[in-house]
Design goal:
alpha+beta, VC0802-like, 2 domains, eleven-stranded mixed β-sheet, 18 helices, 30 strands, binds adenosine-5'-diphosphate, binds aspartic acid, binds magnesium ion
Length: 609
């Protein structure tokens, strides 16, 4: 007999009929001989309705009262689901987060789970009851009993955390789509169901707005090896398996906060090529990386910073053995760009043979801006200048001078109290893994550009510490390649993206520090969209980035920023072009033919009751 945690989302408990259907599924699972813990969300759009009510009373509700209000939604569902089970003759008991003892940080509206008491749940299970638990909520401590919530969509996180604490055999997330699709079916009706996806891939996708799974739920599954499945509430189809690494026994104390970083990785076999002042128009990146891919050269990081005037810089890294050939491709491209509006002689290729990449890796950095900031300040304290930065959900990588590599690794290992290892080298493509698993669009981002910040160790650290102190999470971070000398000081630009809602606050707190940090201005652009392609199979397969850039160029969509990690390529484009960009890259990677075709009605949740 196993223990299964089943989580039902808002739509799945949206009406009395659906609650009854949930009760039947739960009872069927019990009848198969399993213990069942049920986690539920608020019914339908209840939470949205409560937010709306609060805003009718005040434009600025206190976070504490918001938590008090929003937590009521789940309390309604747990009682009704329990009653429905009892009505079927199945003993059941409902419990709030506080009654279970789901202890969180004392931070309202986005608390992380610290500890879960399992004794009460286990006692009820032993008595043959189904335990129905309110998702999305907890309490700050047994003494304070302050009700907290985990952030919108947080019931998924409650469910996976409970599965980890109870060492359940499986955590099933029931929702209104057949599982995880290659992209959001509301934007791309051709989206296909995936049979499986790794936690790392899902983390990258989920945090980009693939709201089917709360990213923190995936972090916990990865860190605690929880077997996780996303399935439809309306069918018995198997859904999508989210593959976690093998189970690692870990303490439950500090559940969501103790393991932000697993290890420090380094790669000394890197060289950098930068193209400066290339025309800022569709197709340039596509041609450059198309040509590089056709030579079968694998690029690692790609970064395109914000434009200056009507030109852009693109920088990328390759293994040292590929440098000469990649350089030749770049040099050959330059003369052809003159016809595309580049001023004669303005473009140039810059090479750096002696660089290294150091990274911190781990699932636990999402929504914790202090982690990247700590990496930057650690490097600064060691007097190491950061030449390029690339961020993803599971990794922050910095390119530094090769001579600084050992010191950087040592300092980072000390700061994060972890060991180090060489970065895994691609050993060619793994044949049965698709290069791109899914694509995602994030329309709720804004771009900030800090113009002309002095180029010396510690500047990135100061900027991102400042933002972290205001709890502002930063997504893409890009430093310009080009330097500008102002009053004898070498300066660069740093651009990054934040959630749109944080943009004004980020701008204000940076602007206030302009004098101290010595930069000119902070420019905000909220009319951006970020499109990304994610897949563990892109490692060691040249041409994935080129394919994406080509698809955008064919649609005449200009790429404003590029950043990559091992398993993701992201481009910032104009917001108005976001959906078209998503559709174009979904087609480009032939994802409509990738998996099981999902009936459109099922995909968009127009389901039977
Ligand atoms: P629940 O209430 O069950 O938690 P959500 O609305 O939070 O459900 O999440 C499911 C929704 O996520 C789907 O209806 C779908 O529109 C959306 N979605 C976005 N991206 C994806 C994706 N890649 N795969 C599946 N669903 C997605
Ligand atoms: N009810 C909460 C929300 O709507 C939590 C959840 O559904 O996961 O965000
Ligand atoms: Mg959800």
């Amino acid at each position: 007999m196993g223990l299964i945690v089943q989580k039902y989302g808002g739509t799945s408990v949206g009406t009395v009929e659906r609650i009854q259907a949930v009760a039947q599924r739960v009872q069927a699972t019990v009848n198969q001989g399993h213990g069942v813990v049920v986690v539920v969300s608020a019914m339908g759009k209840t939470t949205d309705g409560l937010v709306q009510l609060a805003h009718e009373i005040t434009a600025n509700p206190s976070r504490r009262e918001m938590d008090m209000l929003l937590a009521t939604g789940e309390q309604v569902s747990i009682a009704l689901v329990s009653m429905a089970l009892q009505e079927l003759g199945q003993p059941a008991i409902s419990m709030t987060g506080a009654q279970v003892g789901i202890i969180t940080e004392a931070i309202h509206s986005r608390a992380r789970i610290l500890q879960i008491a399992t004794d009460r749940i286990e006692r009820h299970l032993k008595d043959g009851k189904v335990v129905v638990i309110a998702g999305f909520q907890g309490i700050s401590s047994i003494e304070d009993l302050e009700i907290t919530t985990l952030g919108r969509g947080g019931s998924d996180t409650s469910a996976v955390a409970l599965a980890a604490a109870l060492q359940a055999d499986c955590c099933e997330i029931y929702t209104d789509v057949p599982g995880i699709l290659t992209t959001d079916p509301r934007l791309v009706p051709e989206a296909q169901l995936m049979a499986e996806i790794t936690c790392d891939e899902m983390l990258e996708l989920a945090s980009l707005g693939a709201k089917v799974l709360h990213p923190r739920a995936v972090e916990i599954a990865r860190n605690y090896g929880v077997m996780l499945v996303v399935r439809s509430s309306w069918t018995d189809d198997p859904g999508t398996r989210v593959l976690a690494p093998a189970y690692q026994p870990r303490r439950i104390e500090g559940l969501e906060i103790v393991h932000p970083v697993d290890c420090v990785e380094y790669d000394r076999d890197q060289a950098r090529i930068a193209l400066l002042r290339v025309p800022d128009q569709p197709g340039v990146a596509a041609r450059l990386f198309g040509e590089i891919a056709s030579q079968d050269l694998d690029v690692d990081l790609i970064i395109q910073s914000i434009h200056e005037g009507n030109t852009n810089d693109i920088a990328f890294t390759v293994v040292q053995a590929s440098l000469l050939r990649a350089e030749a491709v770049a040099e050959a491209l330059i003369p052809t760009l003159a016809g595309e509006g580049a001023r004669e002689g303005a473009c140039e290729v810059m090479i750096d043979r002696a660089i290294a990449k150091v990274s911190i890796a781990g699932a636990g950095m999402i929504g914790r801006p202090g982690i990247a900031a700590q990496m930057f300040s650690t490097l600064a304290a060691a007097g190491i200048n950061i030449q390029m930065i690339s961020t993803s959900e599971v990794k922050v990588s910095c390119v530094v001078a090769a001579d600084d590599c050992d010191r950087a690794v040592e300092a980072l290992c000390q700061a994060f109290e972890v060991g180090s290892q060489p970065a895994a080298k691609a050993i060619g493509p793994v044949s049965d893994v698709p290069p791109v698993r899914g694509v995602a669009l994030d329309l709720n981002q804004a771009q900030l550009a800090i113009r002309s910040i002095p180029d010396r160790p510690g500047m990135a650290a100061k900027v991102f510490q400042l933002l972290a102190a205001h709890q502002i999470s930063v997504d893409m971070i890009i430093q310009s390649q080009r330097c500008r000398v102002i009053d004898g000081v070498t300066t660069r630009d740093i651009a990054f993206t934040v959630a749109e809602g944080d943009a004004r606050q980020a701008q204000a707190c940076l602007q206030a520090a302009a004098g101290e940090l010595g930069f000119r201005e902070v420019v905000v652009n909220t009319a951006i969209a970020k499109v990304s392609a994610v897949g563990a199979g892109m490692v060691g397969r040249p041409g994935v980035a080129a394919c994406m850039f080509r698809a955008l160029a064919a649609e005449q969509i200009n790429i404003q920023m590029i950043t990559t990690s091992e398993i993701k390529v992201s481009c910032v484009v104009a917001q108005a072009e976001g959906v078209r960009a998503l559709q174009a890259i979904h087609r480009a990677f032939k994802l409509e033919a990738a998996g099981t075709r999902v009936a459109r009605e099922a995909a968009i949740g127009a389901s039977p009751g």
